[in-house]
Amino acid sequence: MDKFWLIPKFLNNLKLIIKNRRVSVPILGTGIFCLLIVTSIVLIKILTLPSLPPEKKILDSDQQYLESVFNPTFFNPALSLLGGVSVQSQAPPFNISGKVFTSFSEPSWEIREYVVKPGDTLSGIASRFNISLQTILYANKLTKRSRIKPGQKLVIPPGDGILHIVRKGETLTGLGAIYKIKVEDIVKANDISDIGKIYIGDVLFLPGAEIPKGSLITYKRVPLAKSFFICPIPAPCRMTQGLHWYNAVDFSNGKCGEPVFAAAGGIVQKVGYTKLGGNYVRIIHSNGVITYYGHLSRSIVSPGQKIYQGQVIGYVGHTGYTIPSGPRGCHLHFDVRFAENPFAKYPVGTCFGK
Q1: Is 353 contained in some domain?
Q2: Does residue 78 contact residue 44 with C-beta atoms inside 8 Å?
Q3: pLDDT tens, 168-183?
Q4: Rounded to whole angstroms, how far apart are CA atoms 183 and 196?
Q5: Is the dihedral of CA 117, 123, 127, 133 positive or negative?
């Protein structure tokens, strides 16, 4: 811009020349013509200056973190350990346009829940969902002699195979050997990006797996003190459904948005979303027991975060699959893995708050 400092001076001189009538008309016309050329050059220079591109938001290739192209934020969450058991490392979730992005994506398969209707039989239900009778029996811990009744909920696997809950020390190679299935099939069916990344309490679908002969896979139950868990929602903390898959009961005070408490202290293992459970939080406790809190409207904790008993971890909602759907279905799905669910022994309608 400093190249054009003579323009103002030229204009002033031109004004004086015209005023004193010291120049002929042809010369004056030539001067004005030159002025127009210089002015055009200035305007072109200004208009062609490079403009800064607007700052924009992008998602990385895994759709995990929202970051700015000019001010990227890098996460390096540490791997938390509890009792020698690794807790998955993950950055906190972000709310973006109403969606929650976490590093835990939903697997391609989907577990469904079926409510038994009058006249239903186990073989008829199996046929309806195009899976074998044995698959339904194994998933629901039933036998061919078991009787079902209207209103009872059954777990429907996505196909013929087995639903397996990962225990401490288990590996994909070991599971493949037990169930006679290729590790690649397990990885593909469960969208496991890293073969080493399975965690205690994970539910894996093993497509085409053979049920081990002799005995079922057993899970050691960790004994719990009576005061180990508190009720995970505020008083009156009413239980609205008894024991159902997986080792779960439901709580609801008939309100959406109530706080959800950690039933016991521990470390947040996972935060995510599934079509069945909706927004969920999983906490691993000092004794290796895992608690799961489902159908949350939202969570307010992050994986690896230390949690104290009674701390608010989220809010009651109706995300995922609820009966009924919508706000009338607001409740908390609370399940316990590797220990007895202490609330399951009480009848539906019991209030645990004062």
Answers
A1: no
A2: no
A3: 888 899 999 988 899 9
A4: 11
A5: positive
Beta-carbon contacts of 81 under 8 Å, excluding residues fewer than 6 positions away, are 87
Geometric angle at alpha carbon 178, from 187 and 144, rounded to 5°: 105
Asked if omega into 324 is within 30° of 0 (cis), the reply is yes
Is 217 inside a domain boundary? no
| Number of separate domains in the chain | 4
Is 139 found in the same domain as 84?
A: no
Give the residue, 68 or 315, on which the prediction is more confident. 315
For residue 158, which phi and psi values (nearest 5 degrees)?
Answer: -70, -10
Strand boundaries in the chain, DSSP class E? 57-59, 66-68, 80-82, 85-87, 94-96, 99-101, 112-115, 153-156, 161-165, 203-207, 239-244, 248-251, 259-261, 266-274, 278-284, 290-299, 306-307, 312-316, 332-337
> Count of alpha carbons within 13 Å of 209, Cβ hemisphere only?
29
Single out the residue of 267, 253, 275 nearest to residue 332, CA to CA.
253
Who's near 91: CB < 8 A, 6+ residues apart?
A: 64, 65, 75, 77, 103, 302
Q: Which two tokens mark 28?
A: 């004056």
Residue 135 phi, psi dihedral angles, 5° rounding: -65, -45
What three-state secondary structure class fits 173?
helix
In this structure, the answer to whether residues 93 and 126 fall within a common structural domain is: no
Distance CA 349, CA 250 (A): 10
Residue 155 has pLDDT above 70, yes or no: yes
Judge whether 71 lies within some domain. Answer: yes
Q: For residue 207, what are the contacts with CB-CB under 8 A and spacing of at least 6?
A: 159, 160, 161, 181, 185, 189
pLDDT at 21: 53
127 shares its domain with 89: no
Within 10 A of 189 (CB to CB), how many other CB atoms are there?
21
Which residue range(s) make up the domain with 303? Answer: 239-337
Is the full-model pTM beyond 0.70? no
Amino acid in position 221: R
